[in-house]
Amino acid sequence: MTNLFDAFSGTAPSLSGPLPDPSTDAGWSGDHPKRVGFFTDTSVCIGCKACEVACKEWNLVPDDGTDASDLYRLTGMSYDNTGDLGASSWRHVAFIEDVRPHGTATPAHGGQVGGQQTGFLPDGLPAVHGGGNGHTPRDAATAPPDGGTVDLLALLPDGGAHGQQTPDDERDVRWLMSSDVCKHCTHAGCLDVCPTGALFRTEYGTVVVQDDICNGCGYCVPSCPYGVIDVRESDGGAHKCTLCYDRLGEGLEPACAKACPTNSIQFGDLDELQAAADARLAELHGRGVQEARLYGRDPDDGVGGDGAFFLLLDEPEVYGLPPDPIVTTRDLPEMWRNAALTAVGLGAAVVAAFWGGRK
Amino acid sequence: MTGHDANTELPERFGHAEGRANDRGSEKRRGRGRKGEQLQVPEAEFRSYYGRPIIKAPVWKNPDVPLYLFLGGLAATSAGLGALGGATDRPTLRRTGRFAAAGGAIGGTVFLIHDLHRPARFLHMLRVFKPTSPLSVGTWILSPFATFAAATAAAEVAEPVLRRRGATGLARLLRRAGNASGAASAVIGPALGTYTAVLFSNTAVPTWHEAHRHLPIVFAGSAAAAGGGMGLVGASVRDNVPAARLAVAGAAVELAAGEVMERQLGLLGDVYQKGRAHTLMRASKACLAAGAVGTVLGRKKRWSAALSGLALMAGSALTRFGVFDAGIASANDPAHIVVPQRERLEQRRSTMDQDVAPPDRTFA
């Protein structure tokens, strides 16, 4: 925020809209480093989760502790057992097993076919009709009816006699993998609403939590349109990806990008990454991969573009990303106006209640 | 997180229902309530990542935060009733208003600090003033309000003690100081009663954010019902007319604005039609209506005025709990994110085709 009171005017560029240099907007002097970011090209992601591990190792991020009732912490929905981003998961590899009846897949997989959306929730393994042994076909994402453990063998065709079989003549299977991360928004909701100043905009244009300032009020958590930041139960503080702020200062690339074996996670100056992403998109489209699209690349979107953006092969919501996120503070000037007017009305109502003196 | 409960469970469709082998075309939106419950909204098709929530639900604690909203609203209007009650020679209303303002503000502050996940650092709230953070603005509203309200209540207690001991000069000084700080808290009060609406609506929680035109009015009505209700409980029949008027008006506004909000939310309003939020809102409406009718009919009897006041306060508190629960349920429902945002994208696309300026908020 260059000017606190601009925030009330509704025209301040710092609340929404394109913003070429968020660091200067946040008060850094003009000679700060260029804005950096991630370009995550999911078309070459192999779902190895090296990024998750490297991030945990470098940043000393503890066990994410989700669902402690389950010893192995299996989500039971796909090979993704991290589930989502959170206070102790700063990289999260989404894994989608896209299974559909043979013939319904199109070049624009997941797009419109005959005017009808072909997309559906992938069913996991294996959506095969059991070999006449009477049990209902069930996929691994189906919770057992009695709430007990999933009998994985029973999920296999022929009751597990042959191991897994995929009759390719019946189904088309596609795996989508994407390493999700904090988007380091141009207009970051978490940063806007933080009441202590613990969240701040770095000289690299990234958004970082200062753990020694954060008092765990939790306001950033529901203000993130992507559901990235969260409060860690063990220490009460809000945590998220720092884009390896400490490594940047030493001229190193973030741990996840360093560890990525396929260069799916690319780190660099944001303008260069955007050019690389545009080129990659054109290349894929040229090769007939019409479903490829960039997500978070557009500086005109609801958060002013992301510092970490993606090349996806299906609609964003299939990866657990909001299709059209808008930073909540875009509407804040109007909200303050409404609340101020209502406050005046409330004060007038109290005075009016005394109207006419004593009866 | 702490304080989560039934509403934070993942939607039922997270675990796929049985018999979906033929449901290959699309994910159908399913009702989540008890069996046989009527669907309140038309089925909408949407895709998601295994039905998981997209945004994170607030980690604010229940009942800390809804109780703070209630107490803040109670204190907000009580301060005004206390100040004007003093100015118009209504001693019992003055006393009630002043004590309720101080009690509400101090109690609310305690709940707010307890809600922090690092409560020892509550003073960090005062490091900065940020207009973009309703919580920061609210801190700077609550802190002076609580200070003035507490000083006023202290003067209210100390003044008769000093007078009894013969220190009339000091007592007179104290009364003037109490009146001044009481007036200050009364002026700040309305801001305390409405900023909490911005606190909720300035989040990515769809049911809260899209109600940002309604929530301030609902919360202001709720604050008036609570403060007026408290006045009815504490003030004598001779003094309780202003409290009765404020309480009835507040209840009427809260009922009407709440109804309009639930309707205009459209798809996003479904969280008010099921689960605990539904129960809480229904109970709130019953309490508010009963309290308002009781006030109109029974203001002139001490016991019926007090009972009506209690009902109005209960209604006000239940509204806060209901809105809180609805927000948690909304955040946990991926449909609340995907469906409106898809509609928004489609509308923008179609209007862009016609070369018209894109509407960005014309959904829901």
UniProtKB/TrEMBL annotation, chain A:
Residues 36-65, 173-204, 205-234 form the 4Fe-4S ferredoxin-type domain. Keywords: 4Fe-4S, Iron, Iron-sulfur, Membrane, Metal-binding, Repeat, Transmembrane, Transmembrane helix. PANTHER family: FORMATE DEHYDROGENASE, NITRATE-INDUCIBLE, IRON-SULFUR SUBUNIT. This is 4Fe-4S dicluster domain-containing protein. It comes from the Bacteria. InterPro entries: 4Fe4S_Fe-S-bd, 4Fe4S_Fe_S_CS, FDH_Electron_Transfer_Unit. It comes from Actinomycetospora lemnae. SUPFAM superfamilies: 4Fe-4S ferredoxins. It is found in: Cell envelope. The chain crosses the membrane at residues 335-355.
Automatic annotation (TrEMBL), chain B:
It is a multi-pass membrane protein. Gene3D superfamilies: Formate dehydrogenase/DMSO reductase domain. The chain crosses the membrane at residues 67-87, 99-117, 137-162, 183-205, 217-237. The keyword Membrane applies. The keyword Cell membrane applies. Keywords: Cell membrane, Membrane, Transmembrane, Transmembrane helix. Residues 1-28 have a biased composition (Basic and acidic residues). It is found in: Cell membrane. Residues 1-38, 344-364 are annotated as: Disordered. It comes from the Bacteria. PANTHER family: PROTEIN NRFD. Belongs to the NrfD family. This is Polysulfide reductase NrfD. It comes from Actinomycetospora lemnae. The gene is nrfD.
